[in-house]
Amino acid sequence: MIQFKNVSKTYNKTNQALININLEINKGDFIFLVGPSGAGKSTFIKLLLKEEEPTEGNIFVEHQDITKISRRKTPYLRRNISVVFQDFRLLPNKTVYENIAFAMEVIEASSREIRRQVPMVLGMVGLSDKAKQYPHELSGGERQRVSIARAIVNNPSILIADEPTGNLDPETAWEIMKVLKQINRRGTTVVMATHAKDIVDTMQQRVIALEKGRIVRDQHKGAYGYED
Ligand code: ADP
Ligand code: ADP
């Protein structure tokens, strides 16, 4: 589903953020991406989203080499790979419903599809009763659930979560993890970059650890492995 082949990324000719990464992620995997600050996690995610291009190597998503597709075609990639961020990134002037519908409008879904899909994903994240609220009227956990609903509304095969619990208290963080695990059970591959030791240690999923741009550990049912 995702393959990195001899991937390196060097910023400004000198700053080696990723060094010869080789990695396969299978359909349906749940992956924790861990490592100290500066290890290369954000760069890894940016390469997958085609926000940055590798200096060397190839990245395959569902057998398509994404380093070879033109910028113009990245919207198609975005249908397949979706992302949630630590800071939610919701549109403040749109309601919950409109925030999610907007993600469908940009890929030109029909209004019939939108009317079917938006209530469905709101139900999945447990926010059916918040459709008409604005982001500022919601708690942090609710905002993150909206951003997850928005991320899955176009049925991506891969969901990337960049520190999705970083702004949440531990109890709320666990609610978000339940939602992500439920999405994963339905078949979506989840790649989550995180510093949440408790969550990684408890969930017993595959753990990929980066340090100074290299994979130093790739562990089935792994642990966080750091003390921060
Ligand atoms: P984290 O992923 O740990 O939350 P960031 O990705 O924001 O943190 O930043 C990680 C490191 O990358 C930091 O040392 C930061 O200074 C550096 N960094 C991030 N973006 C840039 C940039 N545009 N130019 C230079 N350094 C950057
Ligand atoms: P992490 O997310 O694990 O904190 P990053 O991928 O943000 O790591 O950073 C990896 C390395 O690349 C760091 O040395 C960081 O300073 C550098 N870096 C990240 N983004 C940029 C950028 N846009 N320009 C220059 N250097 C960057």
UniProtKB/TrEMBL annotation:
It is a peripheral membrane protein. GO terms for molecular function: ATP binding; ATP hydrolysis activity; transmembrane transporter activity. GO terms for biological process: cell division. GO terms for cellular component: plasma membrane. It is found in: Cell membrane. Keywords: ATP-binding, Cell cycle, Cell division, Cell membrane, Membrane, Nucleotide-binding. Gene3D superfamilies: P-loop containing nucleotide triphosphate hydrolases. It holds the Pfam family ABC_tran. InterPro entries: AAA+_ATPase, ABC_transporter-like_ATP-bd, ABC_transporter-like_CS, ABC_transpr_LolD-like, Cell_div_FtsE, P-loop_NTPase. Its main location: membrane. Residues 2-227 form the ABC transporter domain. Homodimer. Forms a membrane-associated complex with FtsX. Part of the ABC transporter FtsEX involved in cellular division. Belongs to the ABC transporter superfamily. This is Cell division ATP-binding protein FtsE. It comes from Natronincola peptidivorans. The gene is ftsE.
